[in-house]
């Protein structure tokens, strides 16, 4: 459906009593089976999706406002509005609604009567309208009482509104106001105050249009000056006519637009300043007033956007060097207010607004303005720039990259922003903080776009580090040429803290760009000079910068830190801090603790080798002793690489067998007789025995013990393999042929207690070749005497030969036991 008469915007009222734009589409009415009745349907003009499906309820109050709006409530706190492009479309849908509800289309509201009492319903049937007293001075009190009594009842409010509207009563009341003022009739003026305030609470658009017309609005404000609660009347009219001045920085040729601006300002003034703050019960009664102001603002922005001559003149005068300073300041302030005004718009309207400004050349204009000397003008330009960055940072990035191809670095827009941040004269650096936030948004990769043809992140960061980073780091490099900061006043420290905050953000998000810059420019060494600042917050910023670098665990950074001995300033600051338990102390300890816990080997060795003597006496935390222990373990592994590799192999092999540990221990328990335990000796699983031995043996003995245990376990695995008729080619046997025959002949008894295939008779790992006490029951083969070299280690050939020799030299008694 492309009929512009039916083109509408759908709005919903949010919790803040602001209208949210839900989209633009085309409205129709028809019977919906699911809702069992005639309904309003709005389909989006972009994709045809359903924006609104609302049944026309016979009891719902619909309200027609300003000829192009229809407003109603779906639920207690859910208000809807349709804003039509054309009046004809609004009238057409309004007729459909009135037809369903059985109302005359000439009315502007249909009222729900569900909450009315029986008496009110009877009154409604018996008296079709409300008769107002004649508008005379003597009857003002009667009129005020009638208005006050009608407000609690929706039905009476509706009747009163219709009566006021149909009889032109408001204009008659305002004529009485002039009479009362001329006669200084204070009592009459107080009654008029109550009457006009009550009319506002009727919440009726048609009445507002009369009251806010050019001829009536100032008299309405005059009536509201005479609040009976005040001893003296307010002087609102005097303020609006004499103090508040309307400035046209660019002449507005459209009289309708000019009148709309005046009207909106005055109605906003009434809402904010004239009317008393509404109570909780009255708040919803002014919802139509909020709506009136909101839609007026939308209309003003739209009319200004469409006036190309106005905007063209605005930007032409802004950038014209011949424009005097006062005029330019007014122009910038207008543009700032215009942008601030746009923040109340809904997303779609705001998109159109900023696209229009971008097409008119707002960014080049801002570049010119920011280069001027006037502080106030630059401040306003900064505010405008912040609106643009928050709205669309990609648009700003694209502009600055394009201008870099034509201009020098000094006059680039982004460098002007950095310079204003550095040169902020405010002692609290309020402007600098705002600008730093904008720069952070611009360099944040999270809001950068990636397309098939180009990556904004790569292009913009390459541009930023080439053309802008040297401007950002200039104050840092200038202040850290020696061992201490050359300037250490509070304002300089604050500025450097801001610069460090942005650099820390870059370290976290920019990977190789910032890494190359830090290493090539030796930035970290310069930053750590600030550890000597008298301002603790600046020293902590420097420490946080280094901590962020260490947290990346990047060996390029680590080698740079070690080569330049960049722990020295940190250790000095730690020692100078002494025994004070403060944030500096905790932050430094946390950094070293991170190195220890994460086992960053290169930094651990560097710290211990160069700074251990300075740190060894710190015993209130175990961080530094833990670092020393890590360092010694590293040295031990470096001195015994074979031992380290053996440990790794054994550790991995034991890990592979862990899945069978529980099964082996259960089998040992069930295969062990009471006679297998002599002299109170308990059966201990190989893993448990290893744990006990580990507690008392030195590293070399521990390794040998594990090796023996591993060979014993693997020998048992081999015997089980042979008994089942399978043999792994990676195992070597060195038993006599008699033993092989004997083992084969016993294959049928492998599950008996004490048999060679079971782990029920562990040998003594401390004595290779020995046989345990229970040899009368079984020949338990758990030592190196009968089976060696189950796994071919490249460096164990000599051990294999020695073990084979031991087998040959076994005592005859032991050989007999193997052969029996």
UniProtKB/TrEMBL annotation:
GO terms for cellular component: cytosol; nuclear speck; nucleoplasm; protein phosphatase 4 complex. Gene3D superfamilies: Leucine-rich Repeat Variant (1.25.10.10), Pleckstrin-homology domain (PH domain)/Phosphotyrosine-binding domain (PTB) (2.30.29.30). Residues 739-755 have a biased composition (Low complexity). Residues 670-699, 720-820 are annotated as: Disordered. Residues 142-633 form the Serine/threonine-protein phosphatase 4 regulatory subunit 3-like central domain. It holds the Pfam family PP4R3. GO terms for molecular function: protein phosphatase activator activity. GO terms for biological process: DNA damage response; regulation of double-strand break repair. InterPro entries: ARM-like, ARM-type_fold, EVH1_PP4R3, P4R3-like_central_dom, PH-like_dom_sf, PP4R3-like. Residues 5-101 form the PP4R3 EVH1-like domain. Residues 721-738, 772-781 have a biased composition (Polar residues). Belongs to the SMEK family. This is SMEK homolog 1. It comes from Gorilla gorilla gorilla (Western lowland gorilla). The lineage of its organism: Eukaryota, Metazoa, Chordata, Craniata, Vertebrata.
């Amino acid at each position: 459906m492309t009929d512009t008469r039916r083109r509408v915007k759908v709005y919903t009222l949010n919790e803040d009593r602001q209208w949210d734009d839900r989209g633009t589409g085309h409205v129709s009415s028809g019977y919906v089976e699911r809702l069992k009745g005639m309904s309003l349907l709005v389909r989006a003009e972009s994709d045809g999706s359903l924006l609104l499906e609302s049944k026309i309820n016979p009891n719902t109050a619909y309200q027609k406002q300003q000829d192009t709006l229809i407003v109603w409530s779906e639920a207690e706190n859910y208000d809807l509005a349709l804003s039509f492009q054309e009046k004809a479309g609004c009238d057409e849908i309004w007729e459909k609604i009135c037809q369903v509800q059985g109302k005359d289309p000439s009315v502007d509201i249909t009222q729900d009567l569900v909450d009315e009492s029986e008496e009110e319903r009877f009154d409604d049937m018996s008296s079709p309208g409300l008769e107002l007293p004649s508008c005379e001075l003597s009857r003002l009190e009667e009129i005020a009482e009638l208005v006050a009594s009608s407000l609690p009842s929706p039905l009476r409010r509706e009747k009163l509104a219709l009566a006021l509207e149909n009889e032109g009563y408001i204009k008659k009341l305002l004529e009485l106001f002039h009479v009362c003022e001329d006669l200084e009739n204070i009592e009459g003026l107080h009654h008029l105050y109550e009457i006009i305030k009550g009319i506002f609470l009727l919440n009726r658009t048609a009445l507002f249009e009369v009251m806010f017309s050019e001829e009536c609005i100032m008299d309405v404000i005059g009536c509201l000056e005479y609040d009976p609660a005040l001893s003296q009347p307010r002087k609102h009219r005097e303020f609006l006519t004499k103090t508040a001045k309307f400035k046209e920085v660019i002449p507005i040729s459209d009289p309708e637009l000019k009148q709309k601006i005046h009207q909106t300002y005055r109605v906003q003034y009434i809402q904010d300043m004239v009317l008393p703050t509404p109570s909780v019960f009255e708040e919803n009664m002014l919802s139509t007033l909020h709506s009136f102001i909101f839609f007026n603002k939308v209309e003003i922005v739209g009319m200004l956007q469409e006036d190309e001559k106005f905007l063209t003149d605005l930007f032409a005068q802004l950038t014209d060097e011949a424009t005097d300073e006062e005029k330019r300041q007014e122009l910038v302030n207008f543009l700032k207010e215009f942008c601030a005004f746009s923040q109340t718009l809904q997303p779609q309207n705001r998109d159109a607004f900023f696209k229009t400004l971008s097409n008119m050349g707002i960014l080049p204009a801002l570049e010119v303005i920011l280069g001027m000397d006037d502080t106030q003008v630059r401040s306003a330009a900064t505010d405008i720039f912040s609106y643009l960055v928050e709205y669309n940072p990609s648009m700003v990035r694209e502009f600055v990259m394009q201008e870099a191809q034509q201009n020098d670095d000094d006059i680039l827009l982004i460098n002007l922003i950095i310079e204003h941040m550095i040169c902020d004269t405010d002692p609290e650096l309020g402007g600098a903080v705002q600008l730093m936030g904008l720069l952070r948004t611009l360099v944040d990769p999270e809001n950068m776009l990636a397309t098939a043809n180009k990556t904004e992140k790569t292009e913009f960061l390459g541009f930023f580090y080439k053309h802008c980073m040297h401007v950002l780091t200039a104050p840092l490099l200038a202040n850290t040429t020696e061992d201490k900061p050359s300037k250490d006043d509070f304002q300089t420290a604050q500025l450097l803290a801001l610069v460090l905050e942005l650099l820390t953000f870059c370290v976290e998000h920019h990977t190789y760009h910032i890494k190359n810059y830090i290493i090539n420019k030796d930035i970290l060494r310069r930053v750590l000079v600030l550890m000597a600042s008298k301002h603790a917050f600046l020293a902590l910023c420097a420490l946080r910068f280094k901590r962020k670098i260490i947290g990346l665990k990047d060996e390029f950074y680590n080698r740079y830190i070690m080569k330049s001995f960049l722990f020295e300033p940190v250790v000095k600051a730690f020692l100078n801090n002494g025994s004070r338990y403060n944030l500096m102390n905790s932050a430094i300890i946390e950094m070293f603790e991170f190195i220890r816990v994460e086992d960053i080997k290169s930094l651990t060795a560097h710290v211990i080798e160069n700074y251990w003597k300075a740190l060894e006496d710190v015993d209130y935390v175990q961080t530094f002793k833990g670092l020393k222990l890590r360092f010694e373990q590293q040295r031990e592994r470096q001195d015994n690489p074979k031992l380290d590799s053996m440990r790794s192999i054994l550790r991995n092999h034991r890990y592979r067998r862990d899945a069978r540990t529980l099964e082996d221990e259960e089998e040992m328990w069930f295969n062990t007789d009471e006679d297998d335990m002599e002299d109170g000796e308990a059966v201990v699983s190989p893993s448990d025995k290893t744990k006990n031995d580990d507690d008392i043996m030195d590293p070399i003995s521990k390794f040998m013990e594990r090796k023996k245990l591993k060979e014993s376990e693997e020998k048992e695995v081999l015997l089980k393999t042979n008994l089942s008729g399978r043999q792994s080619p990676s195992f070597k046997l060195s038993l006599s042929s008699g033993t092989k025959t004997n083992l084969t002949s016993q294959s049928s008894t492998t599950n008996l207690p004490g048999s060679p295939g079971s782990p029920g008779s562990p040998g003594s790992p401390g004595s290779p070749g020995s046989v345990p006490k229970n040899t009368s029951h079984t020949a338990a083969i758990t030592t190196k005497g009968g089976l060696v070299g189950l796994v071919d280690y490249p460096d164990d050939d000599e051990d294999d030969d020695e073990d084979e020799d031991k087998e040959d030299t076994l005592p005859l008694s032991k050989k007999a036991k193997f052969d029996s």
